[in-house]
């Protein structure tokens, strides 16, 4: 194992310790290993870093050969937001599906199985779950990532998810504090603003976070949102009133405060990532997440140097940086101790194979239970011949990305060979769908149809021409059920598509 380099002073080590950078590649680049040797304590993984469980286990082993207590973090929510299965779609339904079932033991079991898979690959910090109360159905970035619109429901499932992850040694990072659910702007693109009073915030947004803190969540992720009732000037990530005053002092959270990605435009466009990182640590954050878009050595060095310079100029108290670094090291020690106790189930690289972990089918079980099937006025008969699947596709939000497939065509093809599909957007004509489908029955797949007038209009025309069409909603189930059969999956994970396909052909529950 590499020890810290000679001459690397405490201040510089602390500045490296609080960074959680990403990188490019499926093996660790030399610069990353070198900086780990100098004190970098955390690494963030994204879909670009992962090919198979075995490859991921080898990657985390490579990182820990440099430093055995390095924190390996990932943004693995399951459901629509997956990094483990970015090219295939997730084996686990997301929060909205779990919330719609409202069985906390099911949620705990799903999180436990997801945690097992992460732990077996050497990942020990998950930037999940989302504890956002999705009170705004027009929200472009949360939506199905939330357990739902009811604060108490979100709270109990957040607790179950935290318990499931941390019970197998993977630290949970409850997000996006103090609540990203009531926004109509994506903070990847701009700064969302929430103008509700303190009473509403305490009765709605903060309820799940209070519960997660009481349940012992090891980390909390801040949101890049402006809450005028708490701080009218700075987003939560940069606000002492919110991170120190509210989260630390009022709510009593003692764990690790992690920022959302500092390259997101809600912060970067106004402050820049260097200034933003200094302000975040000064406000009370302990770890700087950066790497969804910026993921090179230069970024790490610029952030390190900005923090060191801020301490030397007096802008950032050295004690605050030291405290932040200590919290990172404390979490790293907790995960390291759990790995040492865990045996084969949580040892990186131990018999890592796809589909062999305990409870492998729990994701599909949950997806099937989350289905809501509504029959239309006309008689519906299960499909026995290969249909045509028309997928009406909105632009994917940044958190989900456009790499991960969604829909039910692949799963229908498995059940009904010969199934064909087409993807349609706002510029497409329904006449094209009808001409391509011919005499075959049509399955129309939509996502958040309530948010897109063009999608509603397309369904109107399609159902008028072909009333036997089956409609599958894979986003928020807010619009009235339509079609000969309406199937709400409550999310677009691969297993949700499989459960819907089973319902289409009549083999589902």
In short:
Keywords: Glycosidase, Hydrolase. The protein is an alpha/beta fold.
General description of the model:
The protein is α/β, with parallel strands linked by helices and 509 residues long. It folds into 2 domains: 332 residues, Alpha-Beta Barrel (TIM Barrel), CATH 3.20.20.300; 135 residues, Rossmann fold (3-Layer(aba) Sandwich). Helices cover 41% and strands 12% of the residues. The protein has 17 helices and 16 strands. Strands 2-3-4-5-7-9 form a 6-stranded parallel beta sheet. Strands 11-16-15-14-12-13 form a 6-stranded mixed beta sheet, with helices on both faces. A two-stranded parallel ribbon has the order 1-10. Helix 10 crosses helix 11. The longest helix is centred in the middle third of the chain and has 25 residues. This is Sugar hydrolase.
Oligomer: single chain
Terminal Cα span? 53 Å
Strand content: 5-15%
**Sequence stretches where pLDDT stays below 50 over 5 or more residues:** 1-7, 343-359
Percentage of helical residues?
A: 40-55%
Q: What number is the mean pLDDT?
A: 90
Query: For the record, what is the CATH homologous superfamily label of the largest domain?
Result: Glycoside hydrolase, family 3, N-terminal domain
CATH topology of the largest domain: TIM Barrel
Q: Report Rg.
A: 23 Å
Q: At CATH's second level, what is the architecture of the largest domain?
A: Alpha-Beta Barrel
Supply the key terms.
509 residues; alpha/beta; TIM Barrel; Rossmann fold; 2 domains; 6-stranded mixed beta sheet; 17 helices; 16 strands; globular; disordered N terminus; Glyco_hydro_3_N_sf; hydrolase; hydrolase activity, hydrolyzing O-glycosyl compounds; glycosidase
């Amino acid at each position: 194992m590499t020890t810290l380099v000679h001459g690397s002073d405490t201040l510089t080590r602390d500045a490296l310790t609080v960074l959680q950078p990403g990188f490019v590649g499926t093996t660790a680049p030399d610069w990353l290993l070198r900086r780990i040797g100098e004190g970098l304590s955390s690494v963030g993984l994204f879909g670009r870093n992962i090919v198979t469980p075995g490859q991921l286990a080898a990657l985390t082993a490579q990182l820990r050969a440099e430093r055995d207590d390095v924190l390996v973090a990932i943004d693995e929510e399951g459901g629509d937001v997956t990094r483990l299965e970015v090219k295939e779609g997730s084996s686990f339904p997301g929060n909205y599906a779990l919330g719609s079932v409202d069985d906390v033991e099911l949620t705990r079991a799903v999180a436990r199985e997801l945690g097992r898979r992460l732990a077996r690959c050497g990942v020990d910090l998950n930037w999940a779950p989302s504890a956002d109360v999705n009170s705004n159905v027009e929200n472009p970035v949360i939506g199905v990532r939330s357990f739902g619109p009811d604060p108490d429901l979100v709270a109990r499932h957040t607790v179950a998810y935290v318990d499931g992850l941390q019970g197998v040694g993977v630290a949970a990072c409850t997000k996006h504090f103090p609540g990203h659910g009531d926004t109509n702007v994506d903070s990847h693109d701009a700064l969302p603003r929430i103008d509700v009073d303190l009473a509403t915030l305490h009765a709605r947004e903060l309820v799940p976070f209070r519960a997660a803190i009481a349940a012992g969540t090891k980390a909390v992720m801040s949101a890049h949102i402006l809450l005028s009732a708490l701080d009218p000037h700075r987003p939560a990530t940069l606000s002492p009133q919110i991170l120190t005053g509210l989260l630390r002092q009022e709510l009593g959270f003692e764990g690790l405060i992690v920022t959302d990605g500092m390259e997101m435009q809600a912060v970067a466009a106004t402050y820049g990532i260097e200034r933003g990182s200094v302000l975040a640590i000064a406000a009370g954050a302990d770890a700087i997440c950066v790497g969804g878009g910026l993921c090179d050595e230069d970024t790490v060095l610029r952030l390190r140097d900005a923090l060191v310079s801020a301490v030397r100029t007096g802008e950032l108290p050295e004690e605050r940086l030291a405290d932040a670094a200590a919290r990172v090291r404390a979490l790293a020690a907790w995960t390291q101790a759990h790995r040492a106790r865990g045996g084969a189930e949580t040892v990186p690289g131990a018999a890592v194979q796809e589909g062999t972990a305990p409870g492998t089918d729990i994701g599909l079980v949950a997806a099937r239970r989350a289905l809501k099937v509504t029959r239309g006025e006309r008689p519906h008969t299960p499909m026995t011949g290969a249909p045509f699947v028309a997928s009406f596709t909105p632009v994917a939000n940044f958190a989900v990305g456009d790499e991960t497939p969604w829909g039910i065509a692949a799963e229908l093809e498995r059940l009904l060979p010969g199934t064909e599909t087409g993807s349609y957007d706002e510029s497409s004509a329904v006449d094209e769908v009808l001409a391509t489908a011919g005499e075959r029955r049509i399955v129309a797949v939509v996502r958040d149809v309530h948010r897109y007038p063009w999608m509603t209009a397309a369904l109107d025309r399609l159902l008028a021409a072909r009333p036997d069409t089956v409609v599958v909603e894979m986003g928020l189930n807010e619009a009235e059920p339509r079609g000969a059969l309406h199937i709400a999956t409550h999310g677009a994970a691969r297993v949700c598509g499989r459960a819907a396909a089973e319902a289409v052909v009549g083999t589902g529950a």
